[in-house]
Design brief:
It is built from 10 helices and 6 strands, in the order βαβααβαβααββαααα. With about 240 residues, the chain is α/β, with parallel strands linked by helices. It has 2 domains: about 170 residues, Rossmann fold (3-Layer(aba) Sandwich); about 60 residues. Strands 1, 2, 3, 4, 5 and 6 form a 6-stranded parallel β-sheet that branches. β3, α4 and β4 form a beta-alpha-beta unit. Bound molecules: flavin mononucleotide. The site of flavin mononucleotide (FMN) has 16 residues, from α1.
Length: about 240
């Protein structure tokens, strides 16, 4: 899988976090890093070049320091110029199925970013325009990565955060639907196992199974047929 990292930082020379991140990304195989500020100091974005880069990669990462509850301006300029009708939407959806992810460094601590906290809203909520832009272009919006306390962090914390960021951003085969399906199946297996155990215990004790606290099935017959279902070929295949 080829990954494109679009870096938006207006003063990279003074950066502690994003500089380390760009270098770490650049050292990975199959990763292309494009520093938008370095490429376009006057914000005169080359639309065709940017579109070509998008088409050549499957996962696109927006990397930036969190500025005024959003990204630095050059990334907005990039969106406004590059995501054109006939390319990203309206007639042609050339980004359809591609994966998009935000990785951002945030000055304040995580506790500030929640209802009732200093900043009232989570970063997930504040990044809704990114999420909906990706939805609109029929891309897949992957779970973002946030590095909080970015200014206060010492070098060791930045190094740890960089390792965690890389592991998150470059993880292959991200599929939340499959993960949820597996979680549900695993949970059901545990439920069935507990119900079977409860039914067997109730049977041995000669008491009514509903007294075991097994809520959905109030008769031993139900619990037994339910747990027998686990052994049928269709459920075993789960
Ligand atoms: C113009 C500007 C706006 C900022 N806005 C925010 C903000 O809205 N929320 C926040 O938590 N930090 C904010 N910060 C702090 C930056 O997120 C922080 O400096 C950055 O993540 C550090 O990354 P770097 O070392 O790569 O520059 C802001 C900083 C600047 C310079």
């Amino acid at each position: 899988m080829k990954t494109l990292v679009l870096v938006a930082h207006p003063t990279m020379i003074a950066s502690r976090v994003n500089k380390v991140w760009s270098e770490a990304f650049a050292a990975q195989p199959n990763v292309t890093v494009r520093d938008l500020t370095a490429l376009y100091p006057e914000m005169d974005i080359d639309v065709l070049d940017e579109q070509k880069a998008l088409l050549e990669h499957h996962r696109i990462i927006f990397q930036f320091p969190f500025y005024w509850y959003s990204s630095p301006a050059i990334l907005k300029q990039w969106q406004d110029l590059v995501l054109l009708p006939g390319f990203a939407y309206a007639g042609a959806h050339k980004l359809e199925g591609k994966e998009f992810m935000v990785v951002t460094s945030v000055g304040s601590p995580e506790s500030d970013y929640r209802a009732g906290g200093h900043n009232n809203f989570s970063i997930d909520e504040l990044l809704r325009p990114f999420q909906q832009t990706v939805n609109y272009c029929r891309g897949k919006y992957l779970s973002p990565y946030y590095f909080f306390r970015a200014i206060a962090a010492d070098d060791d914390e930045i190094a740890d955060g960089t390792r965690a960021m890389l592991a998150h951003a470059l993880k292959g085969d991200i599929d939340p639907e499959r993960d949820h399906e597996n979680f549900t199946i695993d949970t059901m297996r545990k439920m069935f196992a507990r119900a079977t155990e409860a039914a067997e215990w109730a049977h041995a004790m000669r008491i009514s199974p509903w007294k075991t606290g097994c809520p959905a099935h109030s008769s031993e017959r139900h619990i037994r047929s339910w747990s027998r279902g686990l052994r049928t070929p269709s459920l075993m295949r789960l």
